[in-house]
Amino acid sequence: MLKYKALRGTQDILPEEMPLWRQLEEMVGRKMKFYNYREIATPTFEHTGLFVHSTGADTEIVEKQMYTFLDKGGRSLTLRPEGTPPVVRTYIEHSLGMKKPLQKLFYIGSMYRQENPQAGRLRQFHQFGAEAIGSIAPALDAEIIALFLDICEDLGLKELSLQLGSIGCPGCRSPYREKLLGFFADKDDLLCDDCKQRHQRNPLRILDCKNPSCRRITEDAPSMLDYLCDDCGPHFQELKAHLDALDIHYQINRRLVRGLDYYTKTIFEVVSPQLGAQDALGGGGRYDGLVEELGAKPTPAVGFAAGIERILLAMEKENCPSPEPCHPKVYVASMGEEAKRLAVRLLQKLRTQMVSADTDYLDRSLKSQMRAANNLKVEYTVIIGQEELNKGKALVRNMRSSQQEEVGIEKLCDYLVEVLNQNQ
Ligand code: HAM
After folding, report:
1. Is 115 a pocket residue for ligand 1 (Cβ < 6 Å)?
2. Exposure b/e, 409-421, CB count within 10 A at least 16 = b
3. What pTM was computed for the model?
């Protein structure tokens, strides 16, 4: 009986899965550089208040999903459920705005939400995200969206849909909220229990409810897009013009709301039709009030985050190419104590010359070692047995052509480096 298993909603990444993760991370890093975003890393846990005051006290994440604990000093700490608040805290704490008027930052890391686990919904998951802090330009919203889609395209994802909306600003959201309250006034009985509670506190969240009855009711609900003010309306128009100029297709989603409180103006989600219920690969938007909310001078910002596990699921469904697994280039097979010592020395030399190499540590027969070399798909196998030792030589076998050559023990390393270089 297994004594311990990974916790529900957490996943191990096995060695054979790792190359795909590394490829994705490298791709993300490369793409971010092309767009001039610089990498940043923040701690995994923060003061709970940071998330309560940014993600929002009324949100599902803060109300139900945070991993919050008291440390030994009695402080309330929380495992980050998302990357945006920590990045903004860092921006403020290190006065990044003084160093550059526009900070373009990106991150890759694990996030934690105590959700009901299901396909594409985990309790520990990973995001990559970008945050551009310091500009109100709609062209920057378009850049953030283009960057996200560019990464998806490079990963081979084709069947994506960009859902676009605007959530306005506190100025225009407040009359809209009143309209919404009026709309739901005589429909309270038809709403699910969660939405009954949301009704007075945060009626916009009803629009996001997945309950079929709530969905039916909200079909005719007024849309924020019809209430945008003279600032938010033109911003949205200009963003659409930029996306058109970039040939980026989008669907205007009149009932798009995001489950985080800090958004203003632009909001978006990229969804994959392949993914069923949890179909959002990522999302984001503008948060022009958050820097001020966290205590610094008003600074506009926009960003996105994508769920890596969901992207990998979508890649699998779309049969996107995965990287070739890495194999060592050389295997050193040996028989006998003296040969083993030589093998270990050769291995060390090869590795310092940047040649990946391995040997047998299980005391296997020469035949089994040759089989192991075959399974490892190495390019060359070095065979050192008593017979070879007596001659001061070793056999080097080219695993592709099956040709073998005798090489002096002292010259082995140089020989292998040379033939491997020639093969490249
Ligand atoms: P979010 O929509 O909460 O936004 O999360 C972004 C993405 O993270 C989701 O679309 C999904 O792919 C992934 N994700 C979220 N929760 C889970 C989960 N439980 N299991 C697996 N994947 C999950 C944010 O986090 C904002 N910080 C995005 C942002 C950045 N807005 C502005 N800047």
Report:
1. yes
2. beebbebbbebbe
3. 0.94
- CA–centroid distance, 122 to ligand 1, in Å, is 11
pLDDT tens track for 214-261: 989 999 999 999 999 999 999 999 999 999 999 999 999 999 999 899
Distance from Cα 281 to the centre of ligand 1, integer Å: 8
What is the spatial distance between Cα 62 and Cα 68, in angstroms, rounded to a whole number? 10
Nearest CA to ligand 1 atom 31: 284
Instruction: List CB contacts of 36: < 8 A, sequence separation 6 or more.
Output: 104
Coil vs helix vs strand at 71:
coil
Q: How far is the CA of 301 from the centre of ligand 1 (A)?
A: 17
Name which of 257, 40, 238 is nearest 131 in CA terms: 40
SS3 assignment, position 175: helix
Our mutation pick for probing the ligand 1 site, out of 111, 267, 312, counting the most ligand atoms within 8 A of Cβ, is 111
User: Which residue's CA is minimally distant from atom 17 of ligand 1?
Assistant: 121
Task: Return the H-helix or E-strand segment holding 125.
Answer: strand 124-133
Q: Where in the chain is the domain with CATH 3.30.930.10?
A: 18-169+229-317
Distances (CA, A) of 416 to 3, 232, 333, 403: 46, 65, 15, 14
The fold of the 330-423 domain, in CATH, is Rossmann fold (3.40.50)
Question: CA-to-CA distance for 84 and 304, rounded, in angstroms?
Answer: 9
- Any atom of ligand 1 within 6 Å of the Cβ of 207: no
CA pair distance 242, 236, nearest whole angstrom: 10
Quick: pLDDT tens for 87-139.
999 999 999 999 999 999 999 999 999 999 999 999 999 999 999 999 999 99
Q: Which helix (H) or strand (E) holds 271?
A: strand 264-271
24, 125, 126, 313: residue to mutate for ligand 1 pocket, most atoms within 8 A of CB:
125
CATH 3.30.930.10: does it fit domain 18-169+229-317?
yes
Q: Where, residue-wise, is CATH 3.40.50.800 in the chain?
A: 330-423
Ligand 1 geometric centre to CA of 292 (Å): 23
Q: Which residue carries 């489950």 as its tokens?
A: 259
**Does the beta carbon of 304 sit less than 6 angstroms from any atom of ligand 1?**
yes
